[in-house]
Amino acid sequence: MRKKHHNKKKASSKKWSAKLHLWFGLSVGIIVFIVSLSGTLYVFKDEIHNSLRKEAIDLKKEDIGKKPLPITLLREKVSLELNEKYPVSAVEIPLDKTKSYQFEYYEKSKKGWNYFQQVLINKQVYVNQYTGEILAVYNEKYDVFSILKYIHWGLLLNSEWGPYTVGIPTVLFIIMLITGIILWWPKNKNARKGRFWFNWENVKNWKRKNYDLHNILGFYASFIALLLSVTGLYFAYPYVKNTFTFALSGSWELPKEKERKSPDSLMAKNEAIFDLAAAQTEKLYAKSSSFRINLNGKNKKGKELKNLPVTVYGLDGRYSERNILTFDKYSGKLLANKPHHKLNTAEKYSNANYDIHTGSYFGIIGKIIWFIAGLICTSLPVTGFLVWWGKRKKKGKKI
What we know:
Radius of gyration: 26 Å
Largest sheet: 8 strands, antiparallel
Structural class: alpha+beta
Helix content: 40-55%
Strand order of the largest sheet: 4-3-2-1-5-6-7-8
Strand content: 5-15%
Order of helices and strands: HHHHEEHEEHHHHHHEEEEHH
Distance between the termini: 38 Å
């Protein structure tokens, strides 16, 4: 009796799993396809950019060894040559002296219903820091990887509500992955043989091959797909981030940065402020990859900063190992040093979430695995639709 009751429960759970899997698949399949494809194509962005922009990134041997020009002077050269109506936002300085400086223009509006209306300017300017020569200018607003990123993030819609158009289907996709695993799970040991790999020796029917592609590849990709989905929701929904933060630190919010009053606010602003900050940063984090200095005195929301923040990146192409320095914006005096190793677990995870989502946290091997998993996720709505369509046509014939 117990066995019969247990079997009934199993059959019932599989029946409901099949219904949810089908309903959600048909309702959000096209969005899952677009989001998966755009995310997959984005994975090797850094490697492709570094290859295509090699001449702008790597400096000539004859220039190396000279003293870099002041950052303020370089900023003025960029401003004069490009003649943009917006100020230069920031500069990224590599610790490798054979690499060029990257000046950034970035301005965003709250208005507009799509990405192209909201992002007013997004340009990267590569500059030879020893001669002041502008090596290359890239309009990142129209770069294929920027567009892929915002398709993946919110289907190119307004950044305030665009993520919900992707976030809600992602929640449904998680349910689809769980129900897919339930449907995949074999009834007994004998049934397991055909669930782990393809056995097409005597199979000529495309429907069976398509079913196996959906079933077997879906199973192998499902665990990484779950990780990708959850880390994506971390960006989209504050309550997901807060839940992670509470689980990792016991607090619902990440520690807020203390606003430090400038002790030298009555002093005349030192013109070499950025160079002073850069020199101190290089001494403190000589083994890091690069650091980013804010140049326009505003944060991402457009509010004026009371001090000068500098973000130090520990490894090239990674955001997980971040150190934050705060300098007095008048005198250049170091006010605070927040190294990566002193962050709590929730803060470390917050910095690492992007790298985990893109696979870069696990190096080039992680990116390759993420890319393959992304391709499989992209194929699942297609093979799933064909499974449903094949069954539908079969039922139509019987009638």
